[in-house]
Amino acid sequence: MSPRWTKSAPTKGQSIIPVKCAPTTVNSPASYSNDSSLPSRLFSPATALPILPAEPDCHPQDLLDHDDVIEQGWWLIYTKSRQEKLLMRHLRQLNLPHYAPQIANRRRSPAGRIRVTYAPLFSNYVFLCGSDETRYLAVCTGAVQKFTPIVDVPEFIADLRQVRDLIRLGVPLTLESRLEAGQPVRVKSGPFAGYEGTVIRREQETRLLVCVRFMEQGVSVKLEDCQLESLGPAVKTSQRAH
Predict the structure, then answer these.
(1) So what's the pLDDT on residue 122?
(2) Does the pTM exceed 0.70?
């Protein structure tokens, strides 16, 4: 790179003197990776790089831990396309209690790095806690398409707590968009001990289906048969939905 020359403004009685400046070099990512003064792990191809940081998915954070939460009114809010996070930002600003579980999605980029994104577990759905006025304020944000009141709140909260706790364990979860007939079971050992759900079999795997029955959606996690104990005979899908 050729040296640059600059001229400083002269004061009265001074002449203009050229000043030679050293060339400026911008290091490329490759040159940084060869810098022994920096930790090599920063440039490892397997480093997980979040595209966007995780946003709060529950407000307040301990909303589902309160005993009186089952005595409150709850709404199933269906948002406009891809506006779940936008609605949650508005709800936080308005200090309106809500929950919309998010999970981390990890994908490897063509360069070999792992990209981490955080997406809603149930697309287009946000669970809102409050009265008719709370629901009205949520609708006024402009991100709501429709809403439905939750009828059986205690059952609904129990389902949400199980889904939340599974997400906190950080185990691989599979979204189940349609309930399947299966045998009700309880996990008797391992990290999922105490969980109740329905056992389903898919691709020679035994999976525990934990669902939000009001929505007929849920998540499943892989388990071994020896970890399960039966809670009764298989329940038909039509019976479980009601």
Answers:
(1) 92
(2) no
